């Protein structure tokens, strides 16, 4: 009973935090509901963002398909895209943000490849890590053009240090792991892990990394798609800015603000990062302003959140199609042979 109560209360608490954050942002003039209403009913804004987000999700599905195929997991590109749409759609309504989305995707991947469940799970992990790495790499690159602003503000300095650490630290860590895992000492350490399950998981991790290492061109394409996905997110923000003429920032300013705020939005503090993304977008934008304004920058991110959610509706259609196909397959397998 307590377990069920906790499961209900955790999402409820997160919804309450999100509601409080949105209320605070409204009263703090971070969000302008008049501008919000105008933009989410602007047909050109809605159409352009929906098209961009759908295209970005298709590319994300193809990126995951490439990672699956590198490990010899036979899931079609169409099925990979279908599963991605389904899991992203349902993650809107469930707490946990990207963690929920990845957990759902893992369940679908295991259903598609039951004999390769560990490899399928690792493909989702690497897909997420490559996406995160691409985001922080772009943050690092854009930060190089804002060194003066970064040096004036401690929060930006901390963000810059973090982006630098991820950009260089993650490849170094991967290189060290690869070299270490194939040394006699590394094999001895892995073989002496007490938990049989953990030893198996680590062994599959080493195997997955080895397979990815053998396909450098394909992995370069995966990284490129991840970078391009973040650029498409920036494009969505610029569509809103151009249509509304909000604020005093330049296009490149909004690029850096978007990258950092979407990273903050991924934190599982509230459902879907509601309120967190808007607040961080506003705060970072104000730090980059050269001409102070009273603009509610959080409005931009909230418009993006609402309109991009419309682009996820095909996920429900894919869900119905997917489960119809599963039922048809099960019914066919239960038919007695003539």
* Main pleated sheet: none
Structural class of the secondary structure composition? Answer: mainly alpha
SSE run: HHHHHHHHHHHHHHH
Helix content: over 70%
Shape: globular
> Termini separation (Å)?
50 Å
Low-confidence stretches: 1-9
Task: Evaluate the radius of gyration.
Answer: 22 Å
Number of helices: 15
Write down the overall mean pLDDT.
Answer: 85
- Kindly state the number of beta strands: 0
Beta-strand percentage range? under 5%
How many domains make up the 3D coordinates? 1
Structural features, described:
This protein is mainly α and 338 residues long. It has one domain. It contains 15 helices and no strands. It has helices at 2-27, 33-40, 43-70, 77-91, 98-112, 117-143, 147-152, 154-181, 184-191, 196-213, 216-244, 251-265, 276-288, 298-310, 314-333. Helix 3 (43-70) packs across helix 14 (298-310). The model is unreliable at 1-9 (pLDDT under 50).
How would you describe this structure in keywords?
single chain; 338 residues; mainly alpha; 0% strand; globular; disordered N terminus
């Amino acid at each position: 009973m307590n377990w069920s109560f906790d499961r209900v209360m955790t999402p409820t608490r997160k919804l309450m935090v999100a509601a409080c954050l949105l209320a605070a942002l409204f009263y703090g003039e971070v969000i302008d509901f008049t501008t919000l209403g105008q933009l989410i009913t602007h047909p050109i804004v809605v159409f352009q963002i929906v098209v961009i987000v759908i295209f970005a999700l298709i590319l994300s599905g193809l990126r995951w398909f490439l990672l699956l195929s590198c490990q010899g997991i036979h899931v079609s590109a169409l099925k990979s895209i279908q599963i991605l749409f389904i899991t992203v759609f349902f993650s809107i309504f469930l707490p946990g943000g990207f963690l929920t989305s990845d957990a759902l995707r893992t369940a679908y991947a295991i259903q598609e490849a039951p004999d390769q469940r560990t490899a399928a799970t690792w493909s989702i992990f690497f897909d997420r890590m490559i996406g995160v790495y691409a985001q922080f790499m772009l943050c690092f690159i854009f930060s190089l053009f804002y060194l003066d602003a970064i040096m004036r503000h401690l929060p930006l300095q901390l963000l810059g240090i973090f982006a630098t650490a991820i950009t260089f630290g993650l490849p170094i860590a991967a290189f060290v792991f690869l070299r270490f895992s194939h040394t006699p000492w590394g094999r001895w350490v892995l073989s002496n892990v007490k938990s049989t399950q953990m030893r198996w998981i680590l062994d599959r991790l080493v195997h997955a990394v080895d397979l990815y290492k053998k396909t450098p061109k394909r992995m370069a394409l995966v990284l490129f798609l991840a970078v391009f996905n973040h650029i498409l997110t920036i494009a969505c923000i610029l569509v809103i800015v151009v249509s509304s003429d909000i604020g005093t920032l330049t296009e490149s300013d909004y690029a850096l603000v978007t990258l950092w705020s979407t990273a903050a939005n991924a934190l599982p503090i509230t459902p879907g990062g509601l309120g967190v993304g808007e607040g961080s977008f506003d705060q970072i934008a104000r730090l980059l302003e050269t001409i102070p304004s009273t603009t509610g920058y959080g409005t931009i991110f909230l418009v993006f959140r609402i309109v991009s959610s419309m682009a996820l509706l095909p996920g429900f259609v894919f869900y119905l199609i997917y489960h119809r196909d599963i039922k048809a397959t099960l019914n066919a397998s239960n038919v007695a042979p003539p």
